[in-house]
Amino acid sequence: MSSLVAIVGRPNVGKSTLFNRLIGERKAIIDDISGVTRDRIYGRTEWNGRDVNVVDTGGFVSNSDDVFERAIRLQVQIAIDEADVIIFMCDVTTGITDFDESVARMLRKSHKKVVLAVNKVDNHSRQLAANEFWGLGFDDTFFLSSMSGSGSGDLLDAVIDLLPEETEGLEDLDIPKIAILGRPNVGKSSFVNSLLGEDRNIVTDIAGTTRDAIHSRYTKFGKDLILIDTAGIRKKKKVHEDLEFYSVIRAIKSIDETDICVMMLDAQQGIEAQDMAIFSLIQRRRRGIVILVNKWDLMDKETNTARDYEAKIKEKLSPFSDVPILFVSALDKQRIFKAVEVIEEVFVNKTKRIKTSVLNEALQDMLKKNPPPAHRGKMIKIKYVTQLPTKYPAFAFFCNYPKHVKENYRNYMENQLRDRFGFTGVPISVVFKEK
Questions:
Q1: DSSP per-residue codes, 234-251
Q2: Residue 405 in contact with residue 399, Cβ under 8 Å?
Q3: CA 332 to chain centre
Q4: pTM of this structure
Q5: 431 membership: H or E segment, kind and range
Q6: Mean pLDDT, to the nearest integer, of 75-82?
């Protein structure tokens, strides 16, 4: 299972620049999946053979004076609670500020693994000035320039050395792993308990009762699944705007070790920004998705209530809306076993392999119906298609001008593959390569 590294510090010390450098792309600009703008603060990097999730906590810090200090303290506390290693970033041009000292005290008290990154050290005089930061008391202190990249390699080496050793995780078991995700109090634990027929998880109406992800083996009715009830949010006084961050940072960990993510919604609240953030993460990690609208028993219903409700959800999820949506009541056990069947169907879709001969037979039909549009008078000819050996459905189309295949035609090919071979609930990848 991949580890989590959080970057903390005051605004404008260069956290986002370091984040972009670590994940190897300008994440704030490059993102081929539409979704919430805050997605840009989550990324992945690989260094020395280790796969690491990186979180730039600065995306959730307000600059307004009245919440400035509290917001910084909160982002540090979230990092302390959730991250394996914390990169504490300071700015050599301002020297050690009162805020830096305050954050340093929090980090030292936590006994968390911390790497101090003194940023903007890009000349000899700043190199000398940076020495004062040793006074903050961290053994792992590095001087760097996140803009130029100097020093970032040594920083990453230190971070990797501090990460916990990799152990055999759930991903190594050959059993479908299902993460139950969603906002606090939507009924995640109730759903798991109803399936298991026992109070495996404590259920109360207090948001954040579930402190850690709880794993349960489900072996009823000939099924064999691992259910992961993800951690809830620990409620903090006077904190509202950062609850989303708490939920999503924990979802990241669970998504990495699962095959299928069940996203639970509260029927009375609908789909909100926090749900969209989680949905986008699942999509980008290429995990299977099933949406359960819980507490459906509490809704006033007319003939088309479910149909209209589903249409609204799919409109928000667009362009990826080929997702199964079920209306359930965990309390009354309404349609929860149907949910297990749908989860299994999505797992089959995610692991489905299509023979190359069958794919190419379908390709000829797809091209007859809608050939690729020419680019500046040049005809684009797609020669053949094959499924790539990935853990999720990915298809490579080989043609003469791959760079000139337009986005709408790429979407057409994806939709055709979905319609013909049944990939409901699974994000798929379509790439065009030169033949």
A1: ---TT--TTHHHHHHHHH
A2: yes
A3: 31
A4: 0.68
A5: strand 429-434
A6: 76
